[in-house]
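Reproducibility note. Readers wishing to regenerate the assembly model reported in the main text can use the exact inputs given here. Chain order matters: entities are listed in the order in which they were concatenated for prediction.
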Amino acid sequence: MPQLFAVAYHQCRWNYRDDEDVAQVDSKFDEHDIPYDVLWLDIEHTDGKRYFTWDRMLFPHPEEMQRKLAAKGRHMVTIVDPHIKRDDSYFVHREATEKGYYVKDANGNDYDGWCWSGSSSYPDMLRPEVRSWWAEKFSTENYVGSTPSLYIWNDMNEPSVFNGPEVTMPRDAIHQGDAEHRELHNVYGYYFHMATAEGLVKRGDGRDRPFVLSRAVFAGSQRHGAIWTGDNSADWDHLRVSVPMILSLGLTGISFSGADVGGFFGNPEPELLVRWYQLGAYYPFFRGHAHHDTKRREPWLFGEKNTERMREAIRIRYMLLPYFYTLFREANTTGVPVARPLWMEFPSEEATFTNDEAFMIGNSLLVQGIYTEHAKRASVYLPGKESWYDLKTGTAYKGGKTHKLDVNEEGVPAFQRAGTIIPRKDRFRRSSTQMVNDPYTLVIALNSSQAAEGELYVDDGRSFEFQQGSYIHRRFVFADGKLTSLNLAPGHTQFSSECVIERIILQGLSTGQKSALVEPANQKAEIERGPLLLYSRQGPTVLTIRKPNVRIADNWVIKIF
Amino acid sequence: MKFKMSFIATVLCVLCVVSESIVRSAASSPQNQFLGIAPEDEKYYKSSEVIRCKDGSKKFSRAQLNDDFCDCADGTDEPGTSACPGGKFYCRNVGHTPLPLFSSRVNDGICDCCDGSDEYDGKVNCPNTCWEAGKVARDKLKKKIATYQEGVAIRNQEVEQAKVVMAKDEAELAKLQNDEKILKRLVEQLKERKEQIEKVEEKERLQKEKEEQEKKEAEEKANQGNGAEDQEKTKAEEEAKKDKSEDVENGSAEDKPTESQYDDNVGILEDSHSYQDTAEYHDDLASKDGHIHTPERKGSLVDGVQQEAVKQKKESVATSEPDFDGGSKVPHDEGNDASEKTESLSKEELGRLVASRWTGEDTTKESGEVDVTKDTDHVDHEELRKETHDEQSDGYASETDDDNQKYDDDEVEEEPDDDFGAEDHSDSGSSYKYESDTDSDLSDVTTSSNPSWLEKIQNTVRNILQAVNLFQTPVNQSEAASVRKEYDESSAKLSKIESRISSLTQKLKHDFGPDKEFYSFYGRCFESKQNKYVYKVCPYKQASQVEGHSTTRLGSWDKFEDSYKVMIFANGDKCWNGPDRSLKVRLRCGLKNEVADVDEPSRCEYVALLSTPAVCLEEKLKELQHKLDLMNKEQPQGHDEL
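Running the prediction on these inputs yields the following structure tokens for the assembly.
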């Protein structure tokens, strides 16, 4: 289960050069009122690619830098790769050599391969004692310059060896128990990911959920953190292919995945970048990233209009955070992925089987990417018998057919399935951290029988307490003109929240109900027309129950009449 | 009864669970119903019980104002809460400056307003720091105003001076153009006369040769049989012939009209260089002044120009060297198809080759240069250079905070305007020394002594032309010499005038700003030392990054942008795998011309900050003063700033 912040937006670049650069990028997000949660540092932050160290010229005060971010509820991620620079003055190398922790070559010597750090060796992550030694490296004492708000990125953990066969370790390299690399190549990165995640758990005395992004992946990687699809390019085709990649990962159990928004290599045209943000906002893992040689591409660098579009894309993600977090909980308990191919929700519809340009987020939201330049129209197949409500216009479309829709640059098509209830938070903050106490909006899209269902899962967003049942889990059921909040959490839950629902949006209501009664408080709430989207000034108005102000932690019923 | 029951239930509920939520929801709506409203808007909210959303979308009741629920998408109804994402919260910040906040900052647990008014839900306690912060801000603003006041004065002076100097430049140009016309005619006349003399001389020479030939033939007949002597003689003759043919070559070169010869050379220069080179050429001429007066010097003058051209070409190669440099630094066994060759690569080379997939560097040619550290070539260069040049750069670079910085000697020699650039701008008397320098350079052509040099020449030429008798044979040698001398001197002067005209024209063509406030930037360079680099910003010319003896061009002068607040240098040395380097210099009001904060936010796209009085604008000063007045007015009673 990821921390809440990890589900929000991540800002990365190879490389944010120094602490001043970090401060500047951070303040620009605020200046443009664009939320973000995590700022990432790539390999250049280290002292000569010696992981766990800092280039002190560029980052003289890493703790202070992290504290400044943390003061705004933001986090930092630094990169830690498995290639250890063969430098006797580097403590990690010294220890690994002394303890004999490196993978051996066929002759029994420490295997020496070439990677970012030059001549490097690789800890044998298959050995439990090596993993626990590695994990210790992440304690705030051992990782000098780290603070509890720092999390980790594992790259090159396949392992990448630039001068090895197929850019990896020779097959006859020797691991624990004389096992040859050929036998366990595919799990090396998995174990590395695992050891790093364990390190973060240990660092937080078992109270802080780890966040580790890994490139290498194996069955079970979902237990250790997120995966990204590797070094893509700023091409429309790479935007398109990101969807089937993420869906496939999801089907293998790896829910928490995403592609680099904008494309790693090359400079995206502003239109492509905007489209990527609009689609990427629905990736389970949502991170903007860029190669060293590319131009800066932070969301405010492409003119007011494009800034507006990217801001909106990112805000949609923040608005949907309660829904995403609920889906992550579902993935955590059942393995059902957050991003799903259409056929998973509509297995009886053949038309969905080959569609990998649209996908479902949970069972309620269908997203159609736009993968071509200057697109004016898009064909969108909306499956099922029920209607779909356009997320931004509120317009209803019939299910079971392909719609030719006009598209503009303001967003990619996304629809809420009739019969579902999506929990949102409509207030934007600097980061998800400040949203914790903000009230909720429920968006109810009624189906043809005037019914809908949805869930909301909330916990403290960071600890493992949820494993002891400390969480709020509600099922919202709308039927017979009544919205009921049912408890799905165990009775002994220690977790509570003062959060209330400030707004309930009703779509597809057939009769002209005027007011609502909240029970058991027996309070009346008005039904009026209100904006569908608060951030959009030209947006449509929809039927809204104004200020029911029911707590998400409580059982209640709202009758409309 | 039913009502009563549910009422009791409500009360119970309040007592047991909901109590906190009630407290909270009370806290989420501000106690002051008009919180977050700017003073100028208060009337809008207070004038009636039903208020219209500013975007006209709907109306809301007074009770809905700041009730922590967003009714107007534009945020009109929630100026004091975070309910509408589109809203703005107005911090009064009495004692400091009022501040409009995004409503997303209200009750988010972070103190944004110095008066703490944005956090009122009781979750954090924000002390009022406006007085202290305001004092700091006011002091800062006062300092800024003081800078502006002085800066505006300096700027006005500079603008005045620029007007004077520019007028002077323009007058000089007009005069030179006039002189050029006259001188050109004189040179034409002299040339004509010289050619006539040479024709006569040639005739005489041929006659003489013929006579000698006849004489020789007669002697040969007499001396037949003496082989050794003969051989030597033949050799001597051959040498004589060779000399002659050289004479002919020189002669034929001299036969050409001098202007065109000069033009050709200038053409060479201009092909590869911009106007500065012409200026340098001009300077070069000036420095060779002494020689130019001697007639024999003419050939070498041309040589000198050509040498100069070659030298400059070399320099331009040297400048762009770093790019090639990196590539060639470490030789690498070639292989066009990298994948085929990988087996023959060393371990390290293979590593670098694969790394290049990320770095994008061309390892087939450049693998030696690829840094495994995923660095850019730029950084590689830095490192490579560091190794090579560390010592030099340490000794070489000097602190450049001082505006009066002298540039390295070569540069001073090459740039005629440099002395001017090195003058302290505030010393108005001498800051335009450039002009008098030029005067001394061209003193023989520009000083208007009586009679003027031009009149003198005109007289001399008239005298010569009258004196030389073309029909007298043999040619009077002293007369011929004086024609040649006068011709050489006059055409040299013409060249100088022409190059001066060209440099003045080039100079005056530039955009010096609406008040010509940037006129004094012409020919100046501003330097900043950052770590191992010295950045040189030379407006109207180019910008470069110097490390030791290696120079990387960050760009050539392009233009001003953003209403003269930014200088653009474009098309610098190409970046490996990246764009051509470029530099954007932001201008900021300051009393001295100083470059600071050179940065490279995107690869090979540099930015820098230049403080200069040239952008200390009067309007901005007024704006700042107004701001200070407002801040002082907002002060709470009882505090005395002084």
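We highlight two features of this model. Chain A touches chain B through 61 residues (CB under 8 Å). The first helix of chain A runs from residue 4 to 7.
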